[in-house]
Amino acid sequence: MQESPQEPSPSVIRAWGRLIRAERTVMGRIEAELKSAGFQSLHWYDVLLELKRGPEGRLTPREIEEAGLFEQYNLSRLLDRMENEGLVRRIPFPGDKRRQLIEITEEGKALQWRMWSVYGAAINRFIGAKLTDKEAGQLSALLLKLIQE
Amino acid sequence: MQESPQEPSPSVIRAWGRLIRAERTVMGRIEAELKSAGFQSLHWYDVLLELKRGPEGRLTPREIEEAGLFEQYNLSRLLDRMENEGLVRRIPFPGDKRRQLIEITEEGKALQWRMWSVYGAAINRFIGAKLTDKEAGQLSALLLKLIQE
DNA sequence: TCAATCTCAATGCAATTGCATCAAAAACAG
DNA sequence: CTGTTTTTGATGCAATTGCATTGAGATTGA
């Protein structure tokens, strides 16, 4: 009698537990730094950074969605809030009336920059100080295997 | 003029990005499996598992909180829902009327077991199939460094 | 002893997320 | 063409989360 044909190995179970805990722990620490500096959540930063990297500071919502693993309905409303704050603007997509382009404003760029000064320092503190560059590279390589497929 | 004294190294930034993405990707896949099997979110499972491991299937809310990285107010309401479903029951804590003990019911144990058959298989599929045991061990060790302190 | 402080859990209310669906426009199939 | 299907983004509503506060009960300290 097989108890469970799909039982994962203990080391795999442990790795999964650690992945959850490490992500939450570090995310919690980083978001706490951002919040105490008076900033919005990392989602805002992610959107701003993606836009800044895009051609002419513009991307379609779909592209942002994919780049940041957003849900369509969440992103739609997040963009509402960001537009209200003057960080992005929606402009028509040439040649397709369904679509739109999201463009980062100067204010948005400025916020991205200000957030990075806190965010980057936090990454450094909570990750850079804990891993050597070599270890960081190993970690990246292992995590990549999980993302693939 | 220093651009940013705290700028993390590229490999550290990459590791952080991968950590977020890997956790979300794998979590998304696993939760999708659970949902398609008709189960609640992993939070429910986490609570049930912690309780099952506790002495006589009982823990205080604080202990669950710490074990599962829950927020106090979220756990309080999660326990409401789980109690309504008959998965746990609240019992008085001997000698301290502020506190309580959460006890897993037989129904709760049964649900934990049924969820594990799906959850374990998913862990195996989305992690076990992607990493050797040795790699899983390396990953755990690296992630542990991030959690510590 | 007893007032001040701290711990534990709950809750009102606002913000966010998840789900299902919609309307509009484009792409496709015959 | 024209009817059908697909893509894109928005939204109503329910569930969950976050924040601040509360109330009850322990604990502490003069």
Question: How does this model look, in words?
Answer:
The structure is a homodimer of 149-residue chains. By secondary structure, chain A is mostly helical. Helices cover 66% and strands 8% of the residues of chain A. Chain A contains 6 helices and 3 strands. Chain A has helices at 10-36, 42-53, 61-68, 72-84, 106-128, 133-147, and strands at 58-59, 88-92, 100-104. The first copy, chain A, has a 3-stranded antiparallel sheet. In chain A, α1 packs across α5 and α2 (42-53) crosses α5 (106-128). At the A-B interface, α1, α5 and α6 of A face α1, α5 and α6 of B. The first copy, chain A, binds a DNA duplex (30 and 30 nucleotides) through α4.
Strand content of chain A: 5-15%
Query: What pattern of helices and strands is seen along the backbone of chain A?
Result: HHEHHEEHH
Q: Give the rounded overall mean pLDDT of chain A.
A: 95
CATH class of chain A: Mainly Alpha
The helix tally of chain A amounts to: 6
Residue runs with pLDDT of under 50 for 5 or more positions of chain A = none
Structural class of chain A: mainly alpha
CATH H level of chain A: which superfamily? Winged helix-like DNA-binding domain superfamily/Winged helix DNA-binding domain
Shape of chain A from CA axes?
globular
**What is the total tally of β strands of chain A?**
3
The multimeric state of the shown protein is homodimer
**CATH fold-type name of chain A:** Arc Repressor Mutant, subunit A
Named CATH architecture of chain A: Orthogonal Bundle
For the sheet with most strands of chain A, the description reads: 3 strands, antiparallel
Strand order of the largest sheet of chain A: 1-3-2
Fraction in helix of chain A = 55-70%
Most extensive interface, chain pair and sizes: A-B, 50 and 50 residues
